[in-house]
Batch of 2 targets.
Target 1
Amino acid sequence: MKVRTRSSAIIATICLVASLALTAAFADEPTAPRQVPKVALTKVTTAANPSAGAAGPGGTVWIAERAGTVRVLDGQGLGKPVLDITKETTTDGERGLLGIAFDKKFAHFYISYTNLEGTSTVDEFAVRHGKIRPDTRRTVLTQTQPYPNHNGGDIKFGPDGYLYIALGDGGSGGDPHGNGQNLDTLLGKLLRIDPAGGKPYAIPKDNPFVDDPKAKDEIWAYGLRNPWRFSFDAGTGDLLIGDVGQSAWEEIDWAPSDSEGGENYGWSQMEGNHPFRGGTEPANHVPPVHEYDRTGLGCSVTGGYVYRGKAIPGLKGQYVFSDYCDGTIRALRMENGKVTGASDLGVNGGEVISFVQGGKGELYVLDIGGSVFRIDPA
Ligand SMILES: [Ca+2]
């Protein structure tokens, strides 16, 4: 009897899952405006292991190549390197040139990379007439790394004009040093600094932990494992973070544009919505707005952007992201920080390592294998 009861329970569960799946499928039926927009990936160029990108001056798109070069994509195609730090970085583990960013006026250019010791490093260059001035290079921030993986490395300017820097938990696996919840280290954090306000930088006065002597003043948010890619919604200013999971749950984290910072995204007490290895959910845990397991959708989330381009009206306001292991381009419909629907856009970008938002809101997909795609209407 016991066995039959269990079987019934399993069958009931399967039916429930099936009906949920049907509900999810119907949610994407063509009842405009909820229709899944038809998109295509247009290959615009090939780069050498493109790892990151940023909108540059004059409608250009700057592409970082993982081994340490930066090249500019314009109407003529992809140019020769305008910056070369290949002798200053390595590509072992998850290392290399991992992020690039401009400030709002394109007056300064920033690179984020691991140096020859594996130390996460953010350097600044002045930019004049759209060109990097190598003689102005200076190091803004460094963070030693105990292991070669989980370096984070993404850098972006927020709508507030401050530089945000994502750092992973230091690596290995399972956060062996407990860095995610430790406010006395920059590892496992999203930082917020003002590189123009001091040398090497200033701390914004309203950073959430400036009055806490036990916490690093640079911290904006914590409880992150490997926040590989994050972005700000160009329409709302909301923050979205793709935080790579340990072995079970990939997640997207969110904060509203009027956040005062200090969000605890849970790692390594939590992996997604689930206690990690017997962890206790922190009282202030901010759960992900979206998570997925590894039963087919991938194994390493690649955070993207909320689409604010004009070419694909049906995609406007949706968060576009992917997964390094899977490559399918996906989109989340969101309303005030709540995901109201998830869809598969039906195109695959290969080993998707990063997205780039061009100056007019158009989105590019970087395949670490070399392809640079633009998301276009089908
Ligand atoms: Ca989390």
Note: The first strand starts at residue 39 and ends at 46.
Target 2
Amino acid sequence: MIENKVAYITGGTKGVGYGIAKILLENGVSVAFSGRKKGDVEKVVTELKQYSQNVLGIVSDVKNLENESETVKNIIEKFGRLDFVIANAGLGIFKPVDQLSADEWNEMIETNLTGVFYTLKASVEELKKTEGYYITISSLAGANFFENGTGYNASKFGVVGFTQAAMIDLRKYNIKSTVIMPGSVATNFNGNIPSEKDAWKIQPEDMGNLVLDVLKMNPRVLPSKIEFRATKPNS
Ligand SMILES: NC(=O)c1ccc[n+]([C@@H]2O[C@H](COP(=O)([O-])OP(=O)(O)OC[C@H]3O[C@@H](n4cnc5c(N)ncnc54)[C@H](OP(=O)(O)O)[C@@H]3O)[C@@H](O)[C@H]2O)c1
């Protein structure tokens, strides 16, 4: 039963996080989501209220542990509990390794990898109380390396290893953990503007439905690592 449970999704202002927020709200879950800019967060709260009133938008940068701890406090104040944490926020900068700057490397690693740890660090005591669920969004780039992908590949391979090791630590507390590794999703990632050309891709709602299915699984089973791809890639 997932009705009346509470989810926190990092990076819910657009793309994958937005799609997950929409589907969870439609299915009776209260949703808190984050983004870095107040104006964007407020706009998305208004949009998401068409699906359910039980939505909370919070300005938080996953690179900042204090932000994440404050966010979890706000969620508990508003909803009283936290059941599902979806560490989704991420970005990609794609350049040959000799042209990738230290700042670009740090931005990816701190957001995509350290951020995933900070979000768990801030929420794990609440997840213990609810015997909740921790889901991370890695990528097929967390298993397959490619040209211009050094920083992104490193961060996403890292998320796969991190989540699987965390899964072993956390299941002692009846907390489940899953790493989802999507292929191409029709989002704003890497400057993309979603349009009809993206019809072949995974859609943000597909990500939401996958998360919903995972959360609804019988407590005795745990899909710890999921590769999720478009049926017919258009490449
Ligand atoms: N799109 C794909 O093809 C694809 C494939 C595999 C995996 N993924 C992964 O899916 C996740 C979501 O990406 P997306 O495709 O939905 O991209 P997107 O459309 O660009 O959305 C990224 C989201 O992350 C948030 N975000 C970025 N940095 C943040 C930070 N430091 N703190 C808090 N929020 C932050 C953004 O919010 P603000 O800009 O409002 O702060 C936005 O809501 C990423 O981890 C990405 O690596 C994407």
Note: Residues 10-17, 34-37, 40, 61-63, 88-92, 111-112, 115, 137, 139, 182, 184-185, 187-189 surround NAP (CB under 6 Å).
